[in-house]
Amino acid sequence: MCGIVGYAGGQSALDVVVAGLKRLEYRGYDSAGVAVLSDGGLAAAKKAGKLVNLEKELVNRPLAGGSVGIGHTRWATHGGPTDVNAHPHLDNAGRVAVVHNGIIENFAALREELADRGHDLASETDTEVVAHLLAEEFSSAGDLAEAMRLVCRRLDGAFTLVAVHADQPDVVVGARRNSPLVVGVGEGENFLASDVSAFIAHTRSAIELGQDQVVELTRDGVTVTDFDGAPADVRAYHVDWDASAAEKGGYDYFMLKEIAEQPKAVADTLLGRIDGSGRLTLDEVRIPDAVLREADKVVIIACGTAFHAGLIAKYAIEHWTRIPCEVELASEFRYRDPILGQKTLVIAISQSGETMDTLMALRHAREQGAKVLAVCNTNGSTIPRESDAVLYTHAGPEVAVASTKAFLTQLVACYLLALYLGQVRGTKWGDEIHAVVRELARIGDEVERVLETMEPVRALARSLAHKDTVLFLGRHVGYPVALEGALKLKELAYMHAEGFAAGELKHGPIALIEEDLPVVVVVPSPKARSVLHDKIVSNIQEIRARGARTIVIAEEGDEAVVPYADHLIRIPATPTLLQPLVSTVPLQVFACELATARGNEVDQPRNLAKSVTVE
Ligand code: F6R
Fold first, then answer.
1. pLDDT by residue (tens digit) across 250-308?
2. How far is the CA of 410 from the centre of ligand 1 (A)?
3. Which one is the CATH code of 455-597: 3.40.50.720, 3.40.50.10490, 3.40.50.2000, 3.30.2140.20?
4. How far is 429 from 435, CA to CA, in rounded Å?
5. Is 22 helix (H, G, I), strand (E, B) or coil?
6. Among 108, 192, 453, 604, fewest CB within 10 Å belongs to which?
């Protein structure tokens, strides 16, 4: 949440920063702002609403050019999305400008202190106190990095801060605690940003910053210390995708592009994970096999879509390894006093690797002695860095706020992990593992086939644009798919959408069924366990008898559902546990089309932001 850019180099800082903000707008779009240093001092502009408003403002009121600058795109926490609350925030003399991502928990006390010392604070934000504190500390330290270290030691909460000062016009200073900040290292220019997409057009060399570090950037160098000023260890890495991966590439929306990229994302996530003898080799899983063998419980923590991937993973883990597996919303986990120990394997699933709820849950798990393995899509992010091991998904950058390709690759990674546990613990024979891996390897093509048949789904979605409610039902692994379908519809189409376990319907929710209510039913494979399939066919009849308009997602060749389906969406036959890889896809397309038909912003749904870095 909130996107931050800093630049020191030879180009126009304003151009570089605004271009970077465009790439980060998915992190928040309540307001945007920039500050640039030039010979004439510090010039800033900020505007409520999307970045385009700021761009108009910059046309009407051009800023003096300079080659050092910072920028921000906001997801509002403290204070509404107004011009005054937009970042950057300046001190009263207008010498220092700061942008911030996170929440400064002790800001009220600091604000009072500053007011007592005669500071005049204009906004409702927690951030503004930092600008004033930096100005005070700079007046005695005479150095922005030192001022930042002194200020950071006084702050509680989570923050990425990036600041400039008119009296040190070559320097940008950043700091991080619990919120993301990466450095881009160029030639004669350096960058700071919430994620690498902001500077990927300029450099693919990045430096991962650790917790409680301050970075000083000039066009010629990068210096990193801890909050006490001691030199800090950092990790340099090469970004393995380029600028084109973070562009729409001819699609109207990032979401459409990312849905279409799913076959490749699935294939890439499988790549190189099986050796010549057919054994799984998950190189990044550095937890010793002996520890994995002894694990007596798996606990999965995640949020939103990643949580739904975890719910599906549970079926595979328990079935293939016979280890009990719990799945918990990361935001609830540590408040429940969960029972964890050295034999608990915790799996933290996160696309961004920065979700604060998941990060806090994993820290709690490690404090209790559990081993944590991250399933993550973002190299250099906090969650893998703080975990004992990581299994990367290779979805490439996901820009649309609604997660699609990351979800499918999370599923693939979890299946691989479950099979690996089965391999290590001897609960699955090599040939059994190989058989599943072979099925996984052909799923990319099946997803492609699903994508080729989506026109009727799009037409159906358009015809339902006037509806208020859509329900989703599923059983077994189809239940989390129903939850995911409902989540996609809520966040994109702003419709009332609920996912239910089909068997639960009769315990209450069936009262919601009324004439012509659209109900999407995800039908398990008929060859799985016929009782499971038979039961859901009965459920479809029950809702249809009460007037529901049934939209049935069923495998090719499943004839039993035909008489009860008002609309039938066919998916290829897959092994039971793998079906979510294909059954989710029509639901993504359905939600995307409904959002478009209702005139909503597909890539940037209201109130949301990608990478949720507040709790
Ligand atoms: C929904 C969506 C969110 C994320 C959730 C976790 O489409 O994208 O529900 O799945 O915020 O994010 P990560 O995976 O980055 O931890």
1. 999 999 999 999 999 999 999 999 887 778 988 888 899 999 999 999 999 999 999 99
2. 11
3. 3.40.50.10490
4. 10
5. helix
6. 108
pLDDT in tens, 464-490: 999 999 999 999 999 999 999 999 999
Q: How is the chain split into domains, by residue range?
A: 3-246, 254-451, 455-597
Output DSSP code: residue 63.
P
Q: What is the pTM of this model?
A: 0.89
Strand partners, 176: 160, 213
How far, in Å, is the centroid of ligand 1 from the Cα of 608? Answer: 10
Active-site residue numbers?
2, 610
Q: Give, using CA atoms, the residue closest to atom 8 of ligand 1.
A: 403
Placement of tokens 């994508």 in the chain:
451
Contacts of 131 (CB under 8 A, 6+ apart): 88, 89, 90, 91, 96, 97, 98, 163
> For 38-80, how does the pLDDT look when each residue is reduced to its tens digit (9 = 90+)?
877 999 999 999 999 999 999 999 998 899 999 999 998 889 9
Q: How far is the CA of 173 from the centre of ligand 1 (A)?
A: 30
Strands 325-329 and 297-302: parallel
**Which atom of ligand 1 lies closest to the CA of 404?**
7
- Backbone CA torsion sign across 402, 404, 406, 408: positive
